[in-house]
Write a structure and sequence with these properties.
The protein is mainly beta and about 240 residues long. The protein has a single domain (about 5-244), classed as Jelly Rolls. It is built from two helices and 16 strands. The chain has a seven-stranded antiparallel sheet with strand order 1-4-13-6-7-8-9, with no helix packed on it. It has a seven-stranded antiparallel sheet with strand order 2-3-16-5-10-11-12, with no helix packed on it. The chain starts with a strand and ends with a strand. The model is unreliable at about 125-140 (pLDDT under 50).
């Protein structure tokens, strides 16, 4: 059963088979989010989704390049509201991020834009991850070591992405995600856009959302989270959502 998470004016409206998630105008000082998920209140070990699984829906957004992030798919909800790292991130989803986001996880794919993506970091516990992440941040502050540290971190994870720069966010499109134990296949309007050979195996939670956050984890050793200004209401609409 999907549950709502609404922060600082976020709204969710249902009309027939269509669901609209919207966020209001806001400044860079306030986080706003409209979200549906199936993991609220559960421990990560009890998240409900594992392969084999298929996600289907139709979707469109209000703006071609909305400030912040939006998307739908599966993840392990690894971050706190303040940007703290609670677990190693694992995702299988369609994901959009606007600049100044810069999360270039897969070689040759920019760190922002509309993408299909998987990120498999295994099951590192947060008690291990947090000191390692802190050490990495400190090392990237030393001249000459920033790229070496980030390159080593990138080799330790399995990331696969495909940019959907020809898929307009403002038009209705059919999205399908076929998640298998040894592959994840992403399709848009029936055409395959990404076949990832190493997706996480779960358990993961389903999520769809729109917010005004950005994140940076660049090869240059820059890390951080922040908020984008939203000058007018923006929304994400979904139809025909099925998971099974």
């Amino acid at each position: 059963m999907l549950q709502e998470l609404l922060i600082h004016g976020g709204r969710i409206e249902h009309q027939g088979d269509c669901t609209r998630l919207s966020v209001p105008p806001t400044t860079r000082r306030a986080y706003t989010n409209a979200q549906l998920d199936d993991y609220h209140g559960l421990r990560r070990a009890n998240f409900p989704n594992r392969p084999p699984l298929r996600l289907r829906l139709r979707a469109r957004a209000s703006h071609p390049n909305p400030p912040g992030t939006l998307g739908f798919g599966f993840w392990n909800n690894p971050f706190s509201f303040t940007g703290g790292v609670l677990a190693a991130p694992n995702v299988v989803w369609f994901f959009y991020a606007s600049p100044p986001s810069n999360m270039a996880l897969a070689e040759g794919v920019p760190g922002w834009g509309w993408k299909s993506a998987t990120l498999n970091t295994g099951r590192w516990p947060s008690l291990v991850l947090a000191p390692a992440a802190l050490a990495a941040v400190l090392l990237t502050r030393l001249p000459g070591l920033d790229r070496l540290v980030m390159a080593a971190a990138y080799r330790a994870v399995q990331a696969h992405e495909a940019l959907l720069d020809d898929v307009s966010l403002t038009d209705w499109h059919d999205y399908e995600l076929e998640w298998q134990p040894d592959s994840a296949i992403f399709r848009v309007d029936g055409a395959e856009r990404l076949r990832s050979p190493a997706p996480p195996r779960g358990p993961l939670g389903f999520v769809t959302w729109i917010d005004n956050q950005y994140a940076i984890a660049s090869l240059e050793g820059k890390f951080g989270f922040g908020l984008c200004e939203v000058r007018e209401e923006q929304w994400l609409e979904l139809e025909g959502l099925t998971i099974g």
